Amino acid sequence: MEAKRILVVDDEQDLCDILLFNLRAAGYEALSACSAEKALEMLKAPFDLLLLDVMMPGMSGFELARQLKENERTASLPIIFLTAKDAEENVLQGFGLGADDYVSKPFSLRELLARVKAVLNRKSALVSTRKAEALRFEGLVVDVVCKTISVDGNPIAITRTEYELLKLLLEYRGQVFSRQQLIDKVWPQDVVVTERTVDVNMARLRKKLGRYAVCLASRTGFGYVFDMKNE
User: Fold this and answer.
1) What's the total number of domains in the chain?
2) Rounded distance, CA 176 to CA 165, Å?
């Protein structure tokens, strides 16, 4: 398994060296930045966790956290604040900025490593849950929680019917559904729908799926199927 990447941001070089040594000894890939400004540059590369000091010359840790949470690319990056300021208002401010944990200096290295492991485990569990909550075929993703569809990372505008059609066909990829079966499973029972309506909706959906349009294959005399071989 690939080692988790951790960025330590603190203007105390001695503390950075100690943390880097212990994190690496625990099996993590750890790097450090001596300022929030330097961290912003380094965070152009992906990291799994940020250990962030609050009080630093120039940009504070709180300001860096705010900027990261406002950026879609880094918004989900877990943050553990490291600080000598443990007043309640500072702790609340940190959590208000989306921090995952808050450790007051001086701290036990064993405790810090335990907190690091706990935060990374929570993130892994969340990622696993989110994967289970989405149907995927390569770059085509149907998010069954948010009720959205994206193609190669780009969300597309869809109707409820188009969403339900693609969700059904992608969930049962390779299975052919007759037009009547699609009507029964997708449209409300109190709505009168003809088989021609199914064809119209499928045509509209194909136009929105880009290179995956060919996967929505029709089987003459039978119906429609999500065919991965057509991609």
Assistant:
1) 2
2) 12
Model confidence pLDDT, tens digit, residues 173-194: 889 999 999 999 999 888 888 9
Q: For residue 151, what are its two tokens?
A: 């193609």
Distance (Å, whole) CA 50 – CA 33: 11
* Residues 140 and 191 placed together within one structural domain of the fold: yes
Tokens standing for residue 197: 């309506």
Domain boundary among 112, 131, 150: 131
User: Widest CA span of the chain, in angstroms?
Assistant: 74
120-145 pLDDT, tens per residue? 888 776 655 555 567 888 889 998 87
